[in-house]
Amino acid sequence: MRGMTQELHIVGGGMAGSEAAWQAANMGVRVVIHEMRPKVKTFAHQTGNFGEMVCSNSFRSDDSEQNAVGLLHWEMRQAGGLIMQTAQTHRLPAGGALAVDREAFAQSVTDALTAHPNILISNEEITELPSEGQWIFATGPLTSAALGEAIQHETGADRLAFFDAIAPIVYAESIDMSVAWRQSRYDKGETDAEQKAYLNCPMTKDQYEAFIDALLAAEKTEFHEGETAGYFDGCLPIEVMAERGRETLRHGPMKPVGLTNAHKPEQKPYAVVQLRRDNALGTLYNIVGFQTKMKYGAQASVFKMIPGLENASFARLGGIHRNTFLNSPTLLDAQMRLRSRPNIRFAGQVTGVEGYVESAAMGLLAGRMAASEILGRPLPEVPQDSAHGALIHHITGGAEAKTFQPMNVNFGLFRPLEGLRGGRRGRRDRYKGYTDRAKAVWEVWLAQQGVDGQAAE
């Protein structure tokens, strides 16, 4: 690799690495993607494809006027983002959310990157931090042990960690549709398919209480010596939520609001378990919000207590893995470069953002920043009032370093708007104000780079 100063090397082919490669290659920079899979496997991944989704198949809300993650979708589309473009192609009905056929999605991302004339692929594992060349490390929560040690040695600080859990997937044919019914919460969506994108399994109070008892008593995965269970609140295992109070799940992923039992419309469910379609064929459904660290045998027996899932057959049971990330406010500069080695950038979940969309967004910025540096074209400062800008500002200096934790994009990261009402009653106008302002500054930013600001075809 010596002397290849005009090439950009990207380590990791997940959401961030794939998006970074696409952005840089489209700017005319030669890119080498170093993805150790399938030569070196991880326990969570099943293929060697780029952009493989190991947890949910959802990119969450697609509402660009009232939701911060939907705004992030919009900004990425305007920037010609590969992840959003591919997600749209393989979209599944999911109410107001953007869910995809995960296998078709990953294959399309892989095909697009492999076919790009400016991109080369290497399946050799990178175990050290290079001293020469331009690099982006987007290795995500499953950074290999050797590379993790190299990062820890360079940063001089322990990597922070929490445990990220994987939700189970059920075969659709094994779900009892005389019990379950199709409906998105509050009938969200413009089409019939969107309004019926979820399967709902109702519970009575007695069934719910029995389920909680079984959940609390189930055998759990043990942590390795020296590990601590510091969970990200947006992805808590269901048993951890249950331990916080018996009603926690009923006010979280099992809340019964916005739903009417099609089989018994006069009966209000005490709790509801939702399943979301996981592939285009509609043969697989994942249990929404049911990340778990229960052992496999316990999972099967506990989940079969859910009405409608008594005879469920599981395509994949839940799992749990360690998620590692940098203390980015202390280690990265505003260009996402490692302060001690400015030839190296980080992107994706390893920087302390949480979620597929947020990871891809940081990849988009890192790819453009690195390519601009290689090409000698200074990149305009990312506008802080955009969703991308709010996120990067948070992780590179806006967050409190002593208490830094992974963060989803949310309107709490945005600078306040003057003259708008606060509190819940003013929320709709306030959110629309945030998104209008963000879209305006994002289009200006793209135009400054010679991008027309139109969504990718």
Automatic annotation (TrEMBL):
Key words, A-Z: Cytoplasm, FAD, Flavoprotein, Methyltransferase, NAD, NADP, Transferase, tRNA processing
GO cellular component: cytosol
MnmG N-terminal domain boundaries: 8-377
UniProt GO molecular function: flavin adenine dinucleotide binding; tRNA (uracil(54)-C5)-methyltransferase activity, 5,10-methylenetetrahydrofolate-dependent
E.C. designation(s): 2.1.1.74
Family: Belongs to the MnmG family. TrmFO subfamily.
Protein encoded by which gene: trmFO
Subcellular location: Cytoplasm
InterPro entries on file: FAD/NAD-bd_sf, MnmG-rel, MnmG-rel_CS, MnmG_N, TrmFO
Annotated catalysed reactions: uridine(54) in tRNA + (6R)-5,10-methylene-5,6,7,8-tetrahydrofolate + NADH + H(+) = 5-methyluridine(54) in tRNA + (6S)-5,6,7,8-tetrahydrofolate + NAD(+); uridine(54) in tRNA + (6R)-5,10-methylene-5,6,7,8-tetrahydrofolate + NADPH + H(+) = 5-methyluridine(54) in tRNA + (6S)-5,6,7,8-tetrahydrofolate + NADP(+)
Pfam families: GIDA
Record-linked PROSITE patterns: GIDA_2
Reported function: Catalyzes the folate-dependent formation of 5-methyl-uridine at position 54 (M-5-U54) in all tRNAs. NAD-binding protein involved in the addition of a carboxymethylaminomethyl (cmnm) group at the wobble position (U34) of certain tRNAs, forming tRNA-cmnm(5)s(2)U34.
Enzyme class: transferase
Official protein name in the record: Methylenetetrahydrofolate--tRNA-(uracil-5-)-methyltransferase TrmFO
Cofactor: FAD
The species this protein was found in: Maliponia aquimaris
A GO biological process held by the record: tRNA methylation
Residues that hold FAD according to the record: 12-17
Primary location recorded for the protein, binned into one broad class: cytoplasm
